[in-house]
Write a structure and sequence with these properties.
The complex is a heterodimer.
Chain A (H helix, E strand, L loop, with lengths): L3 H7 L16 H12 L5 E5 L2 H4 L13 E4 L4 H14 L6 E6 H7 L1 H9 L5 E6 L34 H6 L5 E6 L3 H12 L5 E6 L3 H4 L6 H10 L6 E4 L2 E4 L15 H5 L10 H24 L2
Parallel strand pairs in A: 1-2, 1-3, 3-4, 4-6, 5-6
Antiparallel strand pairs in A: 5-7, 7-8
Chain B lengths: L2 H7 L1 E6 H11 L4 E4 L6 H12 L6 E4 L3 H13 L4 E5 L1 H6 L1 H9 L5 E6 L13 H4 L7 E4 L3 H16 L7 E6 L7 E6 L2 H7 L19 E2 L6 H33 L7 E4 L6 E5 L4 H13 L4 E6 L1 E3 L3 H8 L4 E6 L9 H7 L7 E6 L9 H18 L3 E6 L7
Parallel strand pairs in B: 2-3, 2-4, 4-5, 5-7, 6-7, 11-12, 11-14, 14-15, 15-16
Antiparallel strand pairs in B: 1-8, 6-13, 10-12
The chains are: A alpha/beta, B alpha/beta.
Chain lengths: ~300, ~400
Amino acid sequence: MVTMTELHKYGTRKFIMPGTAACPGCPLQVGMRQLAMALDGKFVMVIPAGCSSIIPGTAPYTAYTVPVLHVPFASSPAVASGIVRAVRQRGNEGPVVVWAGDGATADIGFATLSGAAYRNEDILYIMADNEAYMNTGIQASGTTPWMAWTTTSPRGKTEDKKDVALIMLMHKVPYVATASIAYPMDFIDKVRRAMQVKGFRFIHLHAPCPPGWKMDDAYTIRAARLAVETGAWILWEYNQGKLTISPPSIPFKDRARRKPLEEYLKIQGRFAHLKPEDIKLMEEKIDRQWDLILKLAEIYK
Amino acid sequence: MTGQISLAKQVKKVLVGDHAVAEAVKLARVNVISAYPITPQTLIVERISEMIERGELKADYIRVESEFAALATVYGAAAGGARVFTATSSHGLFYMYEMLWWAAASRVPLVMAVVTRVLGPPWNIHDEHTDLLAIRDSGWIIGMAQNVQEAFDMTLTAFKISEDEKVLLPVAIGLDGFILSHTAEPLDIPSQEDVDSWLPPRNPRIPYTIEPGGEPITMGNLPKNDVYHALLKKYMDESMENAKKVIAEVYDEYGKLTGRNYGPLTECYRCSDARYIAVSMGAWSGDIMGAIERLRDEGYPVGLLRIRYLRPFPEEDITAWINGAKGVIVFDRDYSAGLGGVLASEISGFIPSNVSFEGVLAGLGGFDVSPDEFRGIIKEFIDKTEREGPIKIRKYWYIPKVEG
């Protein structure tokens, strides 16, 4: 387990150099810094098209402090598969990480993701999920929640969020987890536990985006925390046959202990059009998701 | 090492084109292979997987879910420092299209066999060059073999060319679907020892390596100024020019190793005293040579200019070979819709106004054109030019009558 003392040690270390092109309140820099802390800054990143292609700034400079290959939208799991095979042949056992958004993961890159997972390639895949195509200006993706406003779902999205982590679990890979940028210790521990395992490891990182969610820049962490506290985002971990609810989410197994969903929704302009019956339906969806995860925890004991 | 000793070490085998390509991949000691099956390419990747299973080749073989992933995977492996190979055809090549450009401009060495095939619809697995020619703007060096021996030689030399510091561009080797891919021909194969002495393992540091704990370089992020992008293209262009010299050097060395000498960018058959030049690329060049032989017997002063490498475009060779010619006739087994034959279109720009010119579209969809038919088309072109003076036909559709 990572300790606060250790986190403090990393407090002054610049894993991402200042002066990036990220929006104020960007969750991706928060999450990427946590990833770098977990791996002590020693890894390779493969980044498909998305916000994280833009954030490090322009060549010949970059804010990232690890080797990075920027690649076409749908290609990152395949490219990472190639890199890892090449470097392992030379005896380099270091982490090869895909850092990808939800569009690259759940939609356009899903075939390469599925292929790399089923081959059990020795890579760590972080899906930083801000729940829409934010870099192109907030278009709905496969992980945009039901009823959320985006520029391509102006009256609210009609489909449910694609549950990528569960789909990855069904690929029978050794490690799958969900995480949240608001729970750095949980996320860092997950990255480190994942690195104890060889093979394909997938972490679905929840990353609220202020401009994309139409909320105040200061609310990034608050929104991420409320997603967990209202039960809307469940933190769980599957590690080589065993699925557990992660500590921050344990209290919210109990429906009564969850905060009212409105607290999470009301700070986001993208849900401003929701009617009370919509919120009720959303709560029912959350209950069903909890049922499913808890049943899976029973199965994967 | 002398040429004679090496020649003695060569082994004669009878192989289909696809298996000859696999043999070259094995001798090159490729580290990472990734591919997806598509007819008529499949025999290459099947044979390579057998070689790895038998322990003849120590390599990672990555069975991916698409051609897009195949190219993305070997691109990643090349960026990670490995010597890599993939193979595809037709629709598979088109499924790779985005990655073709990314890989080329990333300047990593990479070799790919393209077994040429028609693009649908309708479904048609037969031979046409349109697929290979559709990647000509992407930054790949593009070669096209005439026979199984050349498919083997082009594949083996491709690694040396692609990895040369003055080049660092991917190389695509074209071989005609079925006509070469599935046709057995005898060929000479150099020994592993000789190939090893000529082709050392790839230096993973050239041009750069993406590896954990390595230098924190970033490849592919936004340029600070769009002029950088223009400069990158200019550098690619310079590398393409360098590739002309490097290809010549590599074939020179390879000739000493194997006794086989090539053009290198082009070859001109019976051209020294020719007043008319036919131009072609790929396997049917053999049939056209047959036609040239017969026309020569009939007293026609005609030769065949065979394009071995279309990229870099061998304009110096073409200009030199057609210098003083009365007429040039180009055979295209490909079609650029709304324009015409790709070879004819590219070559027509180098034809002086007083020289007769005809572009012939033939063999599209894979139909066979016999030496006799070639003879008739060339004869008609020459006779007409002699009768009427220079003619200019950029696009002539040669469509045989369909029976039944």
